[in-house]
């Protein structure tokens, strides 16, 4: 039985299961399942993604969705101010609402998809990696420009409308070096001399460290492991104290950022959620593996973050107080994190 027929049978038997979970159960990628709808409710798009990014503003207010295996980040806004002529296949959207760091080298497949659900017609643009895993999705809202969406789909429609998606495995990640092979003293010394948060990644590369490994080996003044559920305290405290925060969630192809306050926080069926009008966050609590408070020296003073990792040691979310380069960190965020450490570790 071909994949399209298998999927149709699966949907008849499991009408409430979402496509991502269906792909897991059918042991294929989400992109391959979506492609089975080409010719019906799905259109394959050309891979001119940089050009596409510059056209997204025409859609008006939409919902941007980025996720990894453990966390889903949803933010409503307009895709304004696209920047694509950047080194290493980078692209940016820097706006108060749609704030993205894009790695276009991982953008391999694009689709426009229309689905019917109990609340009506759901129209979207969806981007996938070479292995068929979802990178980024854009959903129209009642405030979006439907005519512009239709024009965009026609403009970027690929000549190839085959319902098959050819996927390939992504290169495996290099394992961390053994701790004994790391110049820990040199690493700690250079961390203490950091001038900018953007210098942290080059520091990891210089000493050949994974991010989780680096936090384990850091001086406790700068990185400290805390209870895994600390994100709940942080989000609830940010809500109660009205502290504006930044929430970074990403995967191999994109990082999506929310900046602002959080208001509606709740637990449901194992997920921990922010459910605000413009921002939703969904954390699969069972699969968060570890958490650290991290402090980086900068020319503007110390910058403090709460960093979450999955059980394999992959970073899945970063939380900061709202800030911009050149401006010192907010004291209310700094106090919130200090209170978190005292409350949860003493």
Q: CATH fold name of the largest domain, please?
A: Heme iron utilization protein-like fold
CATH class placement of the largest domain: Alpha Beta
> Helix-strand pattern, N to C?
HHHEHEEEEEEEEHHHHEHEEEEEEEEH
Placed side by side, the strands forming the largest sheet appear as 1-7-8-9-2-3-15-14-13
Give me the CATH superfamily of the largest domain. Answer: HemS/ChuS/ChuX like domains
> Helix/strand-derived class?
alpha+beta
**How many DSSP H or I helices?**
10
Which strand-content bin applies to the residues?
25-35%
Description of the molecule:
This protein is an alpha+beta fold. It folds into two domains: 3-79 and 109-155, 3-Layer(aba) Sandwich (Heme iron utilization protein-like fold), CATH 3.40.1570; 179-345, 3-Layer(aba) Sandwich (Heme iron utilization protein-like fold). 27% of the residues lie in helices and 34% in strands. The chain contains ten helices and 18 strands. The chain has helices at 3-13, 19-26, 30-35, 49-55, 146-155, 184-192, 200-206, 211-217, 230-241, 331-345; strands at residues 42-45, 60-67, 71-77, 82-83, 90-93, 99-103, 109-117, 120-128, 134-144, 223-226, 245-251, 254-260, 265-268, 271-275, 279-284, 288-296, 303-310, 315-321. A nine-stranded antiparallel beta sheet has the order 1-7-8-9-2-3-15-14-13. The protein has a nine-stranded antiparallel beta sheet with strand order 4-5-6-12-11-18-17-16-10, sandwiched between helices. A hairpin with a 5-residue loop joins strand 5 (90-93) and strand 6. Helix 9 (230-241) crosses helix 10 (331-345). The longest helix has 15 residues, at 331-345. The termini are far apart. 34% of the residues are buried. The model has no long low-confidence stretch (mean pLDDT 96).
